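In this section we walk through a basic example: taking a raw amino acid sequence and producing a predicted 3D structure, encoded as discrete structure tokens. The instruction is simple. Fold the sequence below.
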Amino acid sequence: MNLIADIDRKLDALAAHSLIRRRRVTDGACAPRQTVDGRDLLAFCSNDYLGLAAHPQVIEALREGASLYGAGSGASHLVSGHSRAHQILEERLAEWMVPNLIEARALSLCTGYMANLAILTALGQDADAMIFSEALNHASLIDGARLAKAGVSVYPHGDVAALEAMLAASAAATKIVVTDSVFSMDGNLAPLPELLAACERHGAWLVVDDAHGFGVLGRSGRGALEHFGMKSPNLIYMGTLGKAAGVGGAFIAAHASVIELLIQRARPYIYTTAAPPALAHALLASLAIIGGAEGAQRRAHLAKLIDTLRGALRFEHWQLPVSHTAIQPVIIGSNDDALRVSASLHEQGLWVPAIRPPTVAPGTARLRVTLSASHTLDDVTRLAHALNELEKAAP
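The resulting token sequence is shown next.
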């Protein structure tokens, strides 16, 4: 019982700082309008940026995939779990990345978290390697760096000059710079072209986590590398497939030799059961939509929603950082105030979660508003009005 008492004390400490998190139960498909804990809400909190999670063509492809390949893969990729569906998906993704990578090859994994662990632990397996990590990187990148045998240095957010000085001073045999493309709690973009130029000057890899850019950024939705027009053998790209692509999983794209090294070295890839092949089959439908005319229309509508929301918000005390992506943070400050505002929105039928430390820095608790192409202009106007009124009434 002393062990349980110790756990309870830790939970009490979290509660005292307004850091307890609660799960909510949703019914039905992922969509702006959901039944949550038995109540109908308008949601602004999913990463389904293009609204593909409930797209009829994707649902039908998932059903077809289950009929072709069954419910599960049965083993890891290197045993017997690598199906024809996985192979076709990887080939399609590699084709997508050809304009941005040299001798592009792709590797699919179960989650973006696993993909980031795979990259950093495999490339950083040698003790004479050094990882240079962006200060605001996602937890999966931070954990991947911690698990690697390489040393780790953190460079300030978006500070290319500081990174360049660190690279110049490093005698590491292998240098790995890693960054988010779109920062998940702020919505801003990393200066990827400048980072790549620094990496090329100093013989370093640039690992780009494009979890929130794939499907949304770029003329054809191929992500941050397309958005910036980048191409280099120094690039290693990670894209998730459960956000804008609407299904699940992730992929790594890089030079074929890099991918082969990951297959041979990356423990998160080697020692886990492959994702159900039906998901890979469904993702082929997602890619067809993203890269086609409908995908372009959905991105255009999403851009209009972003402009509408930012144009309608009128804050005197809260902060609306610059973001031209679907992630629109409203920084409130204290944990209690962020929870209070989130609860007030909930009372009005709007679901916008409060984000608190350690996900964000102390004193920057916020609402993380995320927009989807499935939202309407009226949805966004309703949210903006509610936020403006709550900010006026804030103490």
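Looking at the output, two observations stand out. The longest helix spans residues 293-312. The chain is about 45% helix and 20% strand. In the next section we compare this with other chains.
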